[in-house]
Give the backbone structure.
Amino acid sequence: MSSWGRSVSHESIERCSAAARLGAMQRAPAAVAMPTSSEEAVPRPTTKLLAQQVKLREARLTKQTRRLTRILHWEPLLGVAVLICVGLMNVFAAKSLCGTAIRA
């Protein structure tokens, strides 16, 4: 399930938080009692409220997942940029050391 370029630590963090949210969402409908035949005609406000809360949680979860995916999409590119910068710093540091040693 892991995508290319995504580190193992990000995968484990994402799985843990997703599992916790999924567990919370699965527990929410369990709190709703099954209505009997006489109660089926009139929906209770608590049932509607719980259904709204579940929908809101699902929407928030979807939004956060999209945001995290967008952010993690750039991680490999930024990692390569950091490696290139460190390599260039190494090259220029070596050149400046050689230049000062020759002049002295």
